[in-house]
Each structure stands twice: as C-alpha cells, then as structure tokens.
Design brief:
By secondary structure, this protein is mainly beta. It is built from no helices and 8 strands. The model has no long low-confidence stretch (mean pLDDT 81).
Length: 109
Amino acid sequence: MGKTKEFRVINRRFQFKCPYCGGRRNFFINNLRRKNIKCFKCGESTRCLFNRRTDKRVFQSGKILLTTKAGKELEVNLKDLSYNGAGVEIPAGVYPTSTVSGPGSFLEM
C-alpha cells in the first residue's frame, strides 16, 4: 500500500497531487471519507483521506463516550479535533442506524 495523504474537499471537488511524482488531477467525489487513487502519471497508489471542514484539523486518537438526547451512551473512536468540533468514528454494526444519521451529521453533546 502507498502513502496516506489528506486532501481538502470544496464543493465535492479536490485536487489530487501524487506524493511520488507530483502529478496533479482534479476529481469530483460524493460522500466518501477515504479512497485509494492510482496516479495517472506514475501508477503509484495513494490512500486519500478527505477533509471537508473549513478549519484545520488536529489529529487525535482515543475512545470517548457520547450521550444522546435520549440518554443512550455510545462508545466511539475520537479521530480529530477542530475549532468547530470533533471527528469521531462509530464502529460499523455496533449501533442501530436510527441512533446517528451518518457521515457529516451533527451530534449534540
């Protein structure tokens, strides 16, 4: 597997820049958090993380306990912090889909 690199997404678009050869290409993406992209120029694969926030993120890791308005407790993985909030990852299949709305949703804490 190649390198992991973060790309800023604005209006569902981002500019891919290969960390190996510097080749650039614009891409349009839907609601993805990460994707492997193969460079059109050198053929190397890069794991891309997509940042849709307007502020800079500070990457953190750990487990946190969230409590919903209904009083249900959720144990989630903390991924990053920014000026306007925190990025968390909810383990797949652990909580019913009605508990949270999905990527980009707001949880009141």
